[in-house]
Amino acid sequence: MEQGWEKFATPNTHPEKTLPPDLPPTTVYDMYPGTLVAPTHYENPVTGKPVYPVKRTADLATAGATDPTADLATLAKRLTRLQDAEEIENLQNAYGFYLDKWQWDWATALFAQQGTLELAQRGVYVGKARIRASLEDAFGPQGLHQGEVSDHAFYQPVIHVAEDGQTARARVRELSILGKYGVEAYIGGGTRENEYVKENGVWRIKSDHLYLTFLADYEKGWAHGALPAPGPSKTLPPDRPPSVNYMPFPAFQELPFHYPNPVTGKWVQAGESH
């Protein structure tokens, strides 16, 4: 350091003799004053060309064995599935914005003709007409008014599109703030395990199922003002009872996962802990 890198460069280190490595160095090079150009794992973002193209013997041997047509078909399928996932996420988010403003007509339009809606422990409503009626029964007439708030933030989506591209499932978290100025205010959260179906090339909600994690009086907070899950409506009974019986916080609920662990490939089993 005192003599500086210009006049006193330390030679490159070598494998330790007392603790030999498991493998030899992947690249042999000399440090300064020698020349070293670290390999780049990405191409130039403008030209699309690699900075230092590297041709490996194995790559050259297999280059002529690939089928360009098959590769393009595989890439096209993957691209379509990615587009499907993006459309589903946009569909779910649009649904949330309609719920925010109590736009029941627009929210219901996103469902399949025989779609279902299940909010917490209210039960299952089947078909667009019943879904539309249930939203108004649960929250009030269409359209927010002065002094009312109804925000639904959807986040952390995990989306899986079926191989045929006609159905999909998603797990989405939700945080809600609801209330009327000077009257009442609530905060709640939950997880939606939803199903989707593509009808005439357009993705629609097949099943919207909100598992309520907690609901609380806003002033008291979720730690001290926890409320029970709303039960089935007496003015508009559901078409089917709740598919799962549970209680929100402070009770603990084990929600089903529609997907296996992406690393281990194993399914989460109820009651297990690690």
Structure description:
The chain has six helices and six strands. It has 274 residues and is of the alpha+beta class. It has a six-stranded mixed β-sheet. Strand 5 (184-199) and strand 6 (202-217) form a beta hairpin.
In short:
With 274 residues, the protein is α+β, with helices and mostly antiparallel strands.
Explain the layout of strands and helices.
Elements: H1 4-7, H2 57-63, H3 68-100, H4 104-108, E1 111-119, E2 124-126, H5 128-139, E3 148-161, E4 167-180, E5 184-199, E6 202-217, H6 221-224
Strand order of the largest sheet: 2-1-6-5-4-3
* Oligomerization status of the protein chains: single chain
Average pLDDT = 88
Low-confidence stretches: 54-61
| Broad structural category | alpha+beta
End-to-end separation in angstroms reads 50 Å
Helix fraction by DSSP (H/I, runs of at least 4): 10-25%
Please provide the count of β strands: 6
Order of helices and strands: HHHHEEHEEEEH
